[in-house]
Amino acid sequence: MKNRVTILTTVCFAASLSVSAFAADAPTAKTVLATVGSTEITLGHVIALRGRLPQEYQDLADDVLMEGIVKQLAQQTVLMDAINADIDFRTTLGLENEARAFLAGEMLARISEHPVSEEDVKNAYAEKYDSAIPDQEFNASHILVATQEEAQEIVKMMQDGADFATLAREKSTGPSGPNGGQLGWFGKGAMVPEFEAAVIGLAVGEVSAPVKTQFGWHVVRLNEMRNRTIPTLEDERAELTMKVQQQNVQAEIERMTAAANVVYLQVDIDPAAIRDVSLFDK
């Protein structure tokens, strides 16, 4: 079945469709909401389909959603009845694939429901961070100009005692110029390699020689350095829980596959055959 189920628009069709009135008793999954010929459409059908709808449909009002789903199921039943008398081999295989995918998805959902232990989450956190060396973060400012000569002149002006922030506001063509060239805090990988190398090579308070990047020529000052704080277990809990759950699901799939009698036959077939729909007619 398709991953996304779209509520069909109302179409005119000839069918015996009758919507049952709600009984006084509390409804059950077997409560019949409509019939198409002898086929019953129950509240259970509606609930099962609702759970597979995209979020934009889940957010609809219940009365709107219920009416739309009942109509969709009725229309699907009409179409199903129309093709049942003429199901060819290709359609039969398609049904097998859809049933396989649906049931496999249901099994995956059940496996995913298995709780992730606190111990597994803590182990995942330890594996990720216990031996980690904190990355450094840098706070830098820069002045961006078009030519090397302009950059060299700015370096000379700094050596003569000019204020970096004032020069940035007056000379820089970059968007940080009005803010005195301030770039704020950033880690490794955030800047282009040439700029990053220049920053890493500076002592706090030091101003670089002109640095060329794809954006132009920079004069860079390193304002501060610090070690990036390692996230706490609570900060990482949701992400680690999801990661462990995915690993557990994959491990269970591999265990089940190993226990099954799966045999991949070595058949001499041109892989292009997977595109040959004419094989259904042979």
Which sheet architecture does the biggest sheet show?
Answer: 4 strands, antiparallel
Taking all residues together, what is the mean pLDDT? 90
Indicate the low-confidence ranges by residue numbers. Answer: 1-23
Q: How many distinct folded domains?
A: 3
Strand order of the largest sheet: 5-4-7-6
Shape: elongated
Total DSSP E strands: 7
Structural class: alpha+beta
Radius of gyration: 33 Å
Helix content: 40-55%
Order of helices and strands: EEEHHHHHEHHEHEEH
User: How many angstroms separate the termini?
Assistant: 27 Å
Number of helices: 9
Give the DSSP E fraction (strand runs of 2 or more residues): 15-25%
Descriptive report:
- It is built from nine helices and seven strands.
- The chain is an alpha+beta fold and about 280 residues long.
- The radius of gyration is 33 Å and the shape is elongated.
- The protein has helices at about 45-50, 55-60, 60-85, 90-110, 120-130, 150-160, 165-170, 195-200, 235-260, and strands at about 15-20, 30-35, 40, 135-145, 180-185, 210-215, 215-225.
- The relative contact order is 0.09.
- Residues about 1-25 have low confidence and may be disordered.
- The longest helix is centred in the C-terminal third of the chain and has 27 residues, at about 235-260.
- Helices cover about 45% and strands about 15% of the residues.
- It has three domains: about 1-85, no CATH class; about 85-130 and about 235-280, no CATH class; about 135-225, Roll (Chitinase A, domain 3), CATH 3.10.50.
